[in-house]
Each structure stands twice: as structure tokens, then as C-alpha cells.
Amino acid sequence: MSFAPPGESISDIRTEQSLLDGTVIAGAAYGIHLTLFVQCFQLLCQRRRDRQRNWGLLLYICIIFSLGTVGFGGQIKFNEMTFIQDRDFPGGPLGFNFGEYNAPANLMTTAAFVILNWFADGLLIYRLYMIWNNNLYVAALPILTLLGSFTVSVLLLFQLTQPGASLWTRVAISFGIPYWSISISLNVIVTLLIVARLLYMRRVTRIALTPEHASTYTSIVAILIESAALYSTVGLIFVISYARNSMVQNVLLPVLGHIQAVSPLLIILRVARGVAWDRRTIRATAHYCEMIASIHGEISRNAFPGNIAAKLLGS
Asked: Among 36, 99, 144, 166, which is least packed, fewest CB within 10 Å?
């Protein structure tokens, strides 16, 4: 037997369920975020080489974790207000969610995740720049896209501070869809460029190295992590559901902010373990390839023309 609240349609109840489900799943995502943060923090503190770089990465993961924690705290508070403290609000929890969307707790969450997105996109662009051998021409378009995302996100935050504003008002949608579209487009572009470069490196290294040695850096899992494909995939699903006003957006939006944090932490975890691509790795692998080729003479110019190191280090 169901004791549904009086005056609410089945559609309203299902929408409220999706809002609650999104917060619950966000809690699980935050748990993953917390676990990755602890692992990264521990490994970076234990590393003895590149102390200055380690301090920079420690500062970065602390900022990311702090923003994620603030965002999750705001999600919990707004959820309590929606379903417990103000459940008799006209229209029920759904009416409160739309009518009081710009409550301080919710604005705090939105601002925290928007700022977190800036940091996550910044790291991804840096990885692109590094993996492409410091090629500024490759990074130019993503950098300009990041500036556009920053501008639109500031306008969106300003709009959400206005009385009666929410993500589903006409004005907010006119900023919300462009913001997430630009942000997701940036991630898709960078993801494809990184995947293309890593697949090329995968082909080059597997010609000269044993599969066991090459798989650390060239496995499909490694490529997906290095390219932050997780956020690009979930973000693309969200922006489509948001544009179509599907209830799926209510489940994905609370989770999206934490996935923004998980993707860069997965990359940093590989860096801390010494299994991520960096310029030192590229150089070392290139020279190792040359050494193996010169010792065994197994790589002919017909099978692999040119200098291996030049192919790996060249842009």
C-alpha cells in the first residue's frame, strides 16, 4: 500500500525520488573522492624525489578535496531542508527545490563545484600540453574554451543569486546549457586529443618493447584514466538530459561535481605511483627503445622508419 502525499502527481513524486536518489549516489561518489584523496596524499608525502612538484600536487588535491567537501556538505544541508525541515513548503519538496533553489546552502554547493571544475579542467589541459610535448598550438583551443567556460560560469552563478532563480528558469537555462556544453565540449576535445596521442605512443612503444613493459603506460585503462574519459562521458549524458529536461539530470547533477574531482585524482594517483606519462617517462622510454633496438637489431627501417626517440618526443 502506498501513502503518497496528497496533492502531488505521480510525476512530481518521481521527480522528488530522482532528487533524493541523486544525493544518495553523490554520497557514494564523495566516498570514492575521499578514498582517492587519502591515497594520493599518502603517496605524495612518501615520495622523496621532486619535492617541489609534490608540494604543488599536495596543494592541488587539498583544494580539490576541500571544494568537494564543501559542495557535498551543501548538498546534505539542502536535502535536509527539502525533505525534512521545510517539507510543508507549498508544493512539497519539489516546490521547495524550485522555489528556494538559491538558498545559501545550495548556492555554496554550486559555487564550490563550478570552482572545482576550473581546477579540474586546468589540470586536464596541462596534461594535454605535457603529453603533446609542450605543444602550445595543440593546447591553444582548449585554453580559449576554458576561458569561455569561466566567463559563462561566472554569469550563471550571478544569475542564480537573483531572487526566485533556479537552474530551470528561462534565464538560468540560457546560461546553464552553454556553460555545461562548453565545459563538456572542452573535456571531449581534450580527451580525444590525449587518447589520440597515447594511442600513438602505444603503437610506438609496443613495436620496440615487450608487451609487459609497455602495458604499464599504454593499457586501455591507463589511456582512459589519463584522458579523464569518465567525466567526459557522464557530463555528456548530463548535458543532454538537462537540455531535454529529463529526470536523469536530477540523478546526475549531484554526482557530476564529485566525478569532476575523481578524474584528476585518478591521474594524480598514477603520477604519485610513478606510472603516469610525463616528459621524463617519454624520454626514458624513448631511450630504452633505442637501446633495445641497437642491442638486438630487431627493428628494421622498413618496419619502423626513423628514430624512435624522435617519434616519441616529437610533436
From this structure: 144
Average pLDDT over residues 15-22: 88
Query: Residue 125, SS3?
Result: helix
| Per-residue pLDDT, 239 | 87
Distances (CA, A) of 118 to 9, 93, 150, 264: 39, 31, 7, 12
Half-sphere exposure of 238 (CA within 13 A, CB side): 27
Tell me the C-alpha distance between 65 and 20, whole Å: 23
- For residues 271 and 36, give the distance between their C-alpha atoms in angstroms, rounded to a whole number: 13
pLDDT in tens, 140-157: 999 999 999 999 999 999
- 74: phi then psi, degrees, rounded to nearest 5: -65, -40
Tell me the domains of the chain and their CATH numbers.
Answer: 10-313 (1.20.1070)
180 has a pLDDT exceeding 50: yes
